[in-house]
Each structure stands twice: as C-alpha cells, then as structure tokens.
C-alpha cells in the first residue's frame, strides 16, 4: 500500500486550533508537526488521536542537538493509511515530557528506550526504568556528551 501523509488542509485546520502552540513543515516529503509549547503537548497529541484518528504510535526517537534535545513521534492512521511526524524540543537542562502511555499503550517500551539511551524523562510513565542496558549502567550512551566511564559503562563500585 502506498504511503499517504496527513493532508495539508487538515494541518491548517489543526493549526487554527493551536495557532501559537504549533507550526508545521510541509516542505519535507513527510509533513512534520512541530509543537512549540510543551504545555499543550498532550492536548495536541490527544486531538491527533481522537479527531484525526491516528490510532498507532509507530516510533519514538530522540535527537541530541548542540543546544537541545528533540523528541520525534511517528503516528499512523491505519484506516486512512495516513502518517504524520510530530517533533518537540526539550531543554538539555530539563529533558522532561509527559508520557503518552495512556493515549498509546505502545509508547511504553519506546519511551523506556529513549529514557535509557538518551536520558529523556517521560513524566507519569508507569514503569520508567532501563530497558536495554543494565540497571547499573552509568549515563545515557546516545547523548553527545556521553563519556564512557568504564568498560561497558558499568561501575565496579
């Protein structure tokens, strides 16, 4: 099945509901919604799930830029075969964002992975603990600032 992306008219309609809280980049092949204000993050994501029928959270990843982190969500509407990418920037000094596990249960292990590897804290997550690395691993190895402490990142203390 050929991929489709959320139509621009729907993006414009969503922008009317959140005029100063979000923007979008439609110059890319996959339209990208950019959430500018974290206070409305869950509300916008809820709107995407309920009104626009994005019933699947297919991927969560994070990017470490020089001055901030960016969390990237890939959503899918399986009925209409539509996709949308959503991005939100987080300060490196406060890499916290609300969990989406109540909206999409599949966010559970994906948020844990981003916590484990990037150090993103998903507030309200029911089980936010390491998922890939040992519990005593020091740091978050996909952060640019990560320095390997000891072999394998495990402290011998």
From TrEMBL:
Outline the extent of the NADH:ubiquinone oxidoreductase 30kDa subunit domain. Answer: 37-148
Could you give a GO molecular-function term held by this entry? NADH dehydrogenase (ubiquinone) activity
Q: Is the keyword Transport assigned to this protein?
A: yes
Going by the entry's taxonomy, the superkingdom of the source organism is recorded as Bacteria
Keywords assigned by UniProt, alphabetized = Transport
Family named by the database record: Belongs to the complex I 30 kDa subunit family.
* Protein name per Swiss-Prot or TrEMBL: NAD(P)H dehydrogenase subunit J
Which species is the source of this protein? Pectinatus cerevisiiphilus
